[in-house]
Here is the input.
Amino acid sequence: MIAVVIPIAMTLFAVAVLLNFYRLAIGPDIVDRILALDTLMINSIALIVLADLRMGLGVLFELALLIALMGFVSTVAMSKYLLRGDVIE
Amino acid sequence: MTHLDMPATLQLVVAAFLLIGALVALIGSWGLAKLPDFYTRLHGPTKASTLGVGCTLIGSLLFFSHQQDGVSVQEALVTIFLFATAPVSAHMLGKAALRRRLKGVPGTRNMPDR
Amino acid sequence: MTPPLRSRQFWLPHPLFSLFLTLLWLLMVNDLSVAHALLGLALGVAIPLVTHAFWPEEAKIRRPLPLLRYLGVLLVDILRSNLVVALRILRPARQLRPGFFTYPLALEDDFAITLLASTISLTPGTVSLHYDNEANTLLIHALHLEDEAEAIATIRTRYEQPLEEIFR
Here is the structure.
């Protein structure tokens, strides 16, 4: 049953990623684009985990953790830049 | 895939987690794509996407905990991390949007005029 | 300002945080052996020691038990909020009545306010956007705002009062 569900879930996440790309392309403001990138990062974590499940490896969590970390830090850094014109106060 | 020796109930639970997680995350991204202004768009990703990915991770946790005898907790770590950081990035983005004086959709109540 | 070299305050400024770091390390390596426990303990002592200068004043968790209950309530509300937000997203956007409101905080502690702001962002239809340091208020955006006073009252009784109880 899991073997059937994983491709379906991956398809749903792929559609979600396409929707994020749509928002990334049309904007309209730069803040919308940052939000789209953030969501893209979160969705890609799920795609990585699903790929891991499909291959039955169980080794890709470091990757998921790293992407979560990078996504968070880059989102905060970009917002900070918009807030102050400077990343570090 | 070597999940054939898994009990059927556990398979069902894992499958449900994966499917519901994907659906919820899709709704979150759908909200990001369709809602009318930035402030409303902020709601979709912070709640739905986080919970959707969290569900997927918990499904994976259950699967690998059975697979590799011994609880695999790293997915729980990623989930907790996502839930702890999503409000913070939403807050920062919202502040940036207020600072840039983005307009709300017509009909927004008490639009701050800073 | 620096505590004396031989006191506990110098070597273990944040005992709970040290414990948390050790646990985090064990979770991260996913391996419960003596070697990793010792390495985690070493990290748990070293990191607060090195970063001590950057810390704001420490939050005091007075009662751990209500904190657990609070986390339980939060988990249920996250699930509920996703249902609410999903329904709002799937309905036509014309029916939305988004709005802002200001929430006057009763909490004083920085860490408690952070927790409350995060909670508001994770629960039904509200995102906290701005914390006003002088007036001690939070600016909140609601996806569907019907009654401002009711929204404020819900946050007050459901989240802020338990937090006050924990950090008092």
Remarks:
- Helices of chain C lie at 8-11, 15-29, 34-51, 64-90, 110-122, 148-167.
- Residues 8-54 of chain C form one domain.
- Chain C has six helices and three strands.
